[in-house]
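Appendix B, record 7
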Amino acid sequence: MKFTLGDERIEFASTVRRALADGCSPTVVRAAWDGTLDRDVWATLVDMGTTDPDLDFVTRVAVAEEIGRAALPHPWVETAFVAAPVVGPEIGSDLVSTDLGTPGHVPGGAVVDRILLADRPGLRLVAPADLSLTPVDTVDRSRLLQAVDRTASPTGAAVDAPHGAADPWLAGVLGTAAVLIGLGQHLLDATVDYVGQRHQFGQPVGGFQAVKHHLADAAKDLTFARPIVARAAYGLDTAPGDIATARDVSMAKALAGDAATRTAEAALQCHGAIGYTVEHDLHLWLKRVWALARAWGDADHHRGTVGDLLDLG
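Structure tokens (predicted):
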């Protein structure tokens, strides 16, 4: 079986990449660390159709990788992967987040328009003003994470996923996996460029065998994880209720999280001391990887899920 994204999806993702290159510079990401989300870039993404409820998951995954490359600070996965398929056209241009990824915590909680709150066994669409939210100090402050006080019963409208729709939890897991691939790819590309320019002992640092090995391993990990993520997206499109799809989604998150984490480690090591500074842009991507590798279930959790679904005991 030959699996490719197809020309239309590739062109759509490329268009999103160009839009993010113009609208989501590191300055925009850094502004989020101070509590400001740029709504212009969000409006551009909405106008392009990246949050369209009818978008298939294979296309969403292609876009999510570009979201990761740019380190977009907005909760795009929570809106496009989780909320849009459930809420439908009513979502409009709203920026929506959810506490499904990290129970009791909402990315962008104080600045989003609406929150899709876990209200087991269902979901509830809530206005942020109707919740008690407290800022959480996290490794990646650009996510603007807020803790939700769940001692009070949430108000707002109950929301049911349409019949035959993908499980919102699996959708969020998959979207985060795809973003991790994009984050890792940016870190790899930026590091290859850096070691090609930095010289030591009369030659580029990238010419040293140890550096080549680190980056080759990172490239290998990302190359192996990417098609697994795409395969899981195909499963959510064609067989959202199958156990095999749940297995594939967990496998995708485990491999993507591991690949991005190892690439982040290689990038930090190859950048040397400058990579540890907040003045250098590298930390914006590193810290997003560290945060998302743990959100929506970490690699150990998802490997355990895969084992359970395969009945490995």
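Remarks on this record: The mean pLDDT is 92. The radius of gyration is 19 Å.
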